[in-house]
Amino acid sequence: MTPPHPPTSAAYDDDDQEYDVAQEAPIRVEGPPVEDQVSTTQRRTAQRQEDAAEKFPIVGLGGSAGALGAFDIFFRHLPANSGMAFVVVMHLVPDQPGELPAVLQRFTAMPVQEAADGLKVRPNHVYVIPPDRDMSILHGTLLLFQPTQARGRRLPIDFFFQSLAKDARERAICIICSGMGSDGTIGLKMVMENFGMVMVQSPETAEYDSMPRSAIATEFVDYVLPAEQLPAKLLEYLHTPLIERPRREAAESGSRPAHALQKIFLLIRAQTGHDFSFYKRNTVFRRIERRMNAHQIHEFPQYVRYLQENPDEVEALFRELLIGVTKFFRDPEAFLSLRVRLLPLLRSKPADSVIRVWAPGCSTGEEAYSLAMVLLECLDSIDPTKYLKIQLFATDINPAAIDFARAGLYPTNITADVSPERLERFFGRQPDGSYQISKEVRDVVIFAVHNLTKDAPFTKLDLLCCRNLLIYLSAELQKSLLPVFHYALNPNGLLFLGPSENLTGYHDLFTPQDIKWKISRRNDASPSITRVVNFPFALSRHHPATAPGAQLPMTSSSPRKTGPFAALIQKTLLRIYTPPAVVVNAKGEILYVNGRTGRYLEPAPGVGGLNIFDMAREELNYELSAAVHKASTTRQQVVAEGVKVKTDAGYQLLRLSVKYLEEPEQLAGLLLVTFEDQPTPRKVRTGKTATSTDLSRDAVVAALEKELQFNKLRLQTTIEEMESSLEELKSTNEELQSANEELQSTNEEAMTNKEEMQSLNEELMTLNMQYLSKTEELSQAANDMKNLLDATEIATVFLDNDMIIKRFTPSMSHIMHLQPADVGRPITHFASNLHYDTLEQDVRQVLDRLTSIETTIQTTANEWFSMRILPYRTLDNYINGAVLTFTEVSDLKHLEARLRESTRFAESIIETMHEPLLVLDGELRIQTVSQTLADQFQLDAQQLRGQPLAALGPGEWGHALLAERLRGLFDSSEPSFEGLRLPGPQGRPVEAFARRIFSHGSPTNHVLLGLTLAE
């Protein structure tokens, strides 16, 4: 199954919307602007050529045990200028350095390098996944992630292949080589779903055939070849000419007849019973092109002939059209959102009731089982005494997929999508390593073959899950299915669609619950829900439409027996007529019936309708049609006298009246038709005078002339109306052509705006990320600042220039009774515990002079604080208020008081001693002198305080020797000396002794000196 060659200039997606690949990459312009030199078309052509160079195929090679030999053979047979990029993903030992790039470099001339985060993929290069990393690709850039799964549960090949399929789409190519396990199986399905190409090494040539056989079992493989043949087939695929897109060759009837596609649909329907004519044309063409390229067929008529001659190819094409990729809990966030919406619905269900769920297009059952697991988990979280039964109907048109889903056996790679808790509860491990759905889950899921487009839907549903199915169907079929979904759901039932699907045109039927994940609730409150559901079985009735001229508030033409409409009709009839009457529009559609009209009107044969011209008796056709037409045209009352109609009792003469209604406003534009019986002679009633033999020739001629004249008048009126309509149609056609040109121009502008918006959106996203980063930094800085201020236990308050409190720390509550609600109030409004009355003046001084103030103040509780007032400076050196800090210094103040008291106490002791003593500090300045020493040496004790030692007496005292010995007490370990004799006053020697003062066993910076006059 070879898909078409990856496009180099244009592609189209599943949504039936053509787009240019130039939109996917920004334009790179070098040199001066050239807007004035080239046209818009030339610029776009240059852009496409430039961007086309970026759209090269990307080949992902996956392997495990034994794959290195396959890679050796593959790269040796591959030229170095293939134009493709190669990404090798293997199961590597996480704690060993990566040697694979060096090994592969020996096999190829292309540069081989280990993938790095943010590395741009280029053609003719080989990139190797590093150990202990998961790798994906986005916009051609490799991204590395720290693995989140346990070592034995990791699936790096699936992880990369899935991102490759979404990023490269039809340019993606995956190759599965030798390996154990089933890694890569889910990823190759994604590649196939996005119209890439899948190749597998033949199991017979692989050292370990587990991975190749698992890939082949999916039936989504294009080629199964030995490793040495893979490069040649890959190059052949790369250089196979494109089958031109259908839109591009719509005019070439020779290469693709107009009915070729319908013939293919007919052949498929004849053999399988399924009609694909309502599938999206793009999707169908791609699938057919893949099959045509697989057989090297380039013309549609040839392929039609090939299908006629090969029934097996019809089956293969049928399977190709049904290719569906699904997995457990696809879009996990969507299932989390669904669970939130399901819980209220389940709680509202009465006990012992049934929860009915339908999952059309279930494929191989993963999504249906996922829904069952979510429902069971929801039941566990509600009242355990409330029993609810689950019925989950999972349907698909592929019998093989239904059989696979019923078995409930899935490979080991589902561990990447199913959490360990769910694996343990809802799955059982099989001897071969696969997983089987538990009986608890399989019992609630009912699988069946069902065609959504022609079989009757399941009804009375609480949940309808149709994900990623509508995107493959045409818009017409989607419009037919959405009313069916509305009909199938219970009131307040949930509709769960895929992320690429929407409710276009039917928003009045459903109320969105989650716009991102397309979860909606059935809406029964809207008065506009009057749609006719076109079921494949007879459930609908015919509803004639109201004429354009009718100004009724409703569009349904079915008769109404009650309500304001009926009251208005009855009031009008009572005011004007009482005989049998009907209200019709200009087309004759009956909107209301008054009285017994059975004598004049009868149901028409065939499909039931309510048109007065079809229901009128034969004798009334001429007169009734003429009167209605004339009244509608002239807007005047028309009366026909002596109209003869045949009844069950014979002929009856009646007065037929048609009145054009202009009021009330709700009935304006309608026609009131009344039937009044008139006295009928017996001969007329019995019909004796009505025979042709009693009519004179003149009477017959007069009747025929009258009818002919009426027909001429009607014909002339019809011609005039047709000419007028033709002129209007011409005018309308010209307006439509002009509007079409404007729309084309608008479309081009919209495409240009779309590109600009995409670029702007990327810039906004980048800017948003920067803002988020800045916000996180600011939040972290704020947290750090708060913890810093709290840790310092310094009471701080921030004021603005008007002394309004902007912020404060909790410690401020000890000084001022501030609460969080006080932010924004002036600080002068609060009383404090401080003996401080000049706070406002000091703050003003700081703001005016931009200088700080520091002082120590006392509280009423005998606490002391060191207060500092500083200007509040912003980062740009702008003064924006003041900062007040209060640091508690109570202990320091109390210590100082105790020291002063101790000092005074020591000084009083020294002063009262009878010994001649004095105290010196470290600089040998006199601190305290005893009165005895002052008297003995005739000195003034008060004047000696703070004086140097030399102030004791004249120089002959030997002050230098004494000072030297005293300094020695501070520098040596000897704490004292005695018996030092010095020259004294009047030739009398002085005997000195000294001792260093200690406090609590530690030396202080003071010395006690004693001086005595020697005998």
TrEMBL record:
Instruction: Write out the biased-composition intervals (Acidic residues).
Output: 12-21
- Domain named CheB-type methylesterase: residues: 52-241
One Gene Ontology MF term: protein-glutamate methylesterase activity
Q: Which InterPro entries does the entry link to?
A: Bact_Chemotaxis_MeTrfase (IPR050903), CheB_C (IPR035909), CheR_C (IPR022642), CheR_MeTrfase (IPR000780), CheR_N (IPR022641), CheR_N_sf (IPR036804), PAS (IPR000014), PAS-like_dom_sf (IPR035965)
Ranges where the record places region Disordered: 1-51
Q: Name one Pfam family in it.
A: CheB_methylest
> Any coiled-coil ranges, and where?
701-777
Under the heading SUPFAM superfamilies, the entry gives: Chemotaxis receptor methyltransferase CheR, N-terminal domain, Methylesterase CheB, C-terminal domain, PYP-like sensor domain (PAS domain), S-adenosyl-L-methionine-dependent methyltransferases
The catalytic residues are 64, 91, 183
Q: What is its EC number?
A: 2.1.1.80
Q: Which UniProt keywords apply?
A: Chemotaxis, Coiled coil, Hydrolase, Methyltransferase, S-adenosyl-L-methionine, Transferase
The CheR-type methyltransferase domain sits at 261-523
The alphabetized list of GO BP terms reads: chemotaxis; methylation; regulation of DNA-templated transcription
Keyword Transmembrane helix part of the UniProt annotation: no
Q: Could you name the Gene Ontology cellular component terms for this entry?
A: cytoplasm
Domain of life of the native organism: Bacteria
Reactions the enzyme catalyzes: L-glutamyl-[protein] + S-adenosyl-L-methionine = [protein]-L-glutamate 5-O-methyl ester + S-adenosyl-L-homocysteine
What's the name of the protein? Answer: protein-glutamate O-methyltransferase
